[in-house]
Every structure is written in C-alpha cells, then in structure tokens.
C-alpha cells in the first residue's frame, strides 16, 4: 500500500483472507440458513482501492461477488461498489466511528468491528423495506486465515 493518508490506513485491518461463518436465523416460514465461505480483501491501485472478493454458501445457494472500496474525502465515507453472481449491483457507503464500522446501502446495513487483535471481524446485517425501520437479518463472523 502506498496511499499514506489516515483514511486509507483505517482500511488496512480488512486486508487478508478470511474464513466466513454466520447464520440467518429460522423464521416461522423458513429454517435457519448457515453461511460458510471466504472473503478476501486486497489493496489495488497503489493503495487507493481495495478489491474484496466473496465466495460463500448461504444454505444451498452459492454467493460470489466482487466489491471495490475507495475513499471519498468530501463525505469522509468509503464508497463500496459490489457486483454479484446473480447480476445484482449495489452501492453502499462505509463509515468508521469509535472502533465500529457501519456499511449502509439502500436496503442493507452492517454494524460491527474487529476484535482479537484484528483477527476477527464480526457484526450483524439488518434489512429494511422502507429505509427507516431496520430488522435483524443475520450475524456474521470472519476469522483471518492469511494476510
């Protein structure tokens, strides 16, 4: 990484390969759905962008995506453009405050942080249909398995 500004350095804990696990809890109409796979974050373009690749199983469904993460000094947020194997595209914005990361999209929100000396990233995903009322969707935990 050659980008030396503090906002870029905040992204450094994400860099590496992660074993991803999680659970979408059971509802009255659906069984619980386990989540297993890997996430990889790599610096690109002299440290100004991160390429994040996702390869997870959510129950029987294979989910692959790529995401490009940058930094927008005007908003002090991190735009996150993602593209999935289902043809979905989404723009989210990440922000950092007091050791907590928030990823906010049109209908999804992640809140979580790092623990165990940066070797674990965990949090919850929530969803909304109206942009105001958020409901728990799933928990997620990533264990760093490589740099």
Overall description:
This protein has 147 residues and is mostly beta strands. It is 3% helix and 62% strand. It has one helix and ten strands; from the N terminus they run αββββββββββ. A ten-stranded antiparallel beta barrel has the order 1-2-3-4-5-6-7-8-9-10. The protein is globular and about 50 Å long. The model has no long low-confidence stretch (mean pLDDT 94).
Strand content: over 45%
Low-confidence stretches: none
* Quaternary organisation: single chain
**How is the largest sheet built, in terms of strand order?**
1-2-3-4-5-6-7-8-9-10
Percentage of residues assigned to helices: under 10%
- SS summary, helix count: 1
Tell me, briefly, the overall form.
Answer: globular
Instruction: State the total count of DSSP E strands.
Output: 10
The largest sheet is: 10 strands, antiparallel, barrel
Structural class: mainly beta
What order do the SSEs take from the amino end to the carboxyl end, as H and E? HEEEEEEEEEE
What would the average pLDDT be, to the nearest integer? 94
Rg from alpha-carbon coordinates: 15 Å
Straight-line N-to-C gap: 13 Å
């Amino acid at each position: 990484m050659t980008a030396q500004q503090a906002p870029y350095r905040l992204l450094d804990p994400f860099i590496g390969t992660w074993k991803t696990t999680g659970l979408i809890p059971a509802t009255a109409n659906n069984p619980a759905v386990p989540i297993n796979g890997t996430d990889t974050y790599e610096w690109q373009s002299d440290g100004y962008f991160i390429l994040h690749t996702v390869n997870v199983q959510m129950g029987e469904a294979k989910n692959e995506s790529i995401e490009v993460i940058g930094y927008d000094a005007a908003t002090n947020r991190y735009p996150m453009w993602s593209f999935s194997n289902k043809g979905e595209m989404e723009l989210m914005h990440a922000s950092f405050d007091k050791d907590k990361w928030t990823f906010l999209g049109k209908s999804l929100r992640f809140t979580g942080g790092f623990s165990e000396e940066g070797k674990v990233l965990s949090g919850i995903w929530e969803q909304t249909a109206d942009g105001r009322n958020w409901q728990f969707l799933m928990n997620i935990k990533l264990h760093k398995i490589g740099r």
